[in-house]
Prior knowledge:
39% of the residues lie in helices and 21% in strands. The chain is an alpha+beta fold. The protein folds into three domains: 1-121; 123-233, Phosphorylase Kinase, domain 1; 237-471, Aminoglycoside phosphotransferase (APH), C-terminal lobe (Aminoglycoside 3'-phosphotransferase, Chain: A, domain 2, Alpha-Beta Complex), CATH 3.90.1200.10. The strands form four sheets. It has a seven-stranded antiparallel beta sheet with strand order 6-7-12-13-10-9-8. Strands 1, 2, 3, 4, 5 and 11 form a six-stranded antiparallel beta sheet that branches. A three-stranded antiparallel beta sheet has the order 14-17-18. A hairpin with a 7-residue loop joins strand 2 and strand 3. Helix 10 packs across helix 12. The longest helix has 27 residues, at 256-282. The chain is globular and about 65 Å long. The structure holds adenosine-5'-diphosphate and magnesium ion.
Amino acid sequence: MSDGAARTARPLGQGPSAPAALAGPEPTAALLDLLAAWLPRQRWFPGRGDQPAELSLISDVTLQAHYPALRHLIVEAPLRSGGAGRARFQVLVGCRPDLPSSLQSALIGSIQGVACYDALHDAELADVLLRGISEQRLAGQLRFVREPGAPHLARGTPDGRVLGAEQSNTSVVFGDHVILKMLRRLFPGANPDLEVVDALARLGSKRVATPYGWIETDLDSEPVLLGVLSQFLAGASDGWTLALDSVRGLAHPGSGAAAFAAEARLLGQATAELHTDLAAAFGGRDMTAAELARLTGAMQAKLSDAIEVVPELGGHEARIRAAYDAVPRLSGPVSLQRVHGDYHLGQVLRAPHGWVALDFEGEPAVPLAIRRGLAPALRDVAGMLRSFDYAARHELVGGPADGSLAEQASAWVAQSQDAFCAGYAAAGGADPAAHAALLRALTLEKAVYEVVYEYRHRPSWLPIPLGFVAAA
Length: 472
Ligand SMILES: Nc1ncnc2c1ncn2[C@@H]1O[C@H](COP(=O)(O)OP(=O)(O)O)[C@@H](O)[C@H]1O
Ligand SMILES: [Mg+2]
């Protein structure tokens, strides 16, 4: 239940008490209007734009009634990009009669003189969530759960800060030991971001950040994950940053490039360990002939769709189709297992003890049942190999054409990819060299997806995947 009417104390002379400002049909309608304009401007909103979204309110729980007040909302909006359907989003709204300047950038709008803002940016309100997990709070339909082995979570001074690298979701770091990832778009059903990490942590895997708790509710009579609290790997660098540093070092021969090959090899080993543990936790089996044919059919269909969007791809169609057609004719069996599903350099952290994988949610655009399904482990390998290519080429995009730099970048990519594959095979992963035809098909499939993505969202990056496809 919410904190209740007993705690409605307010600073004297500061307008209506929080519940009066927050609750009731009129302010709620006003808040929804504000959110309708605010939501489409958020980084994590699919099909961002300026048009207000048409919102309906799915759930509304007051987590703190006194100022600063905290209201937990789930709203539903029609999906603009990606076709039909509606999507549910989680928004935590803070309310203060006086908004400190440090929170101005989080402002959603004002209602009756009370500022409403994105509460995750308010350390005091983020602390309400952390304490909720620590105390295993039940609030309305919201359940806060602490893992049995979690360390002491209570903090003296609230110090939560939103991580700058806001992508699909919003993460808040407390001190330097825990991170709370609050999901933005909600999907009913077991969420792999918790399911996988939990299972791997139970196996004692060092390749995931230890989960400490989570927040959940129900939607469509199914549990839905709202947030995950885990161990924060302080001082770790993400793979994308390390790779870019190394690529920039190309201008200074003998420095960064060699260092990254060693890291790429370790990353390959860590990835193989991750896959071994995923297979141990969730099982695996060989693909049937019918499944192989379906996989190829799906790849071919996606290529046809992609050519409709980016006709330039058509010039490479024959080679891509031939690579896909090779898949059902593979000699050995192809094994299936749970995979990461959205594996790239931005999803791995180099911690002092080695590489750690993050963000097992998979690609949010893909239905949850498919994300939780089995796939060839080499799909993750293909994702990472493409990511090396991105890291190297991204530095060249938009710059002056420099043949020798482009050559060095190609050499860096090849060296990093070879080191990654060698590490992967050495640590027990399916040897990428022995599965070259499947890896080629999966890598091209990924690149075709990237071509459409860049065409739609980042046209200046389109030459990266198109260049790969042209040369493959
Ligand atoms: N346990 C952690 N320790 C340190 N940094 C982390 C941790 N988890 C996430 N991060 C940082 O936050 C970023 C976003 O996390 P991620 O789980 O990938 O969320 P999103 O779904 O928003 O992409 C990561 O790229 C990483 O830099
Ligand atoms: Mg991520």
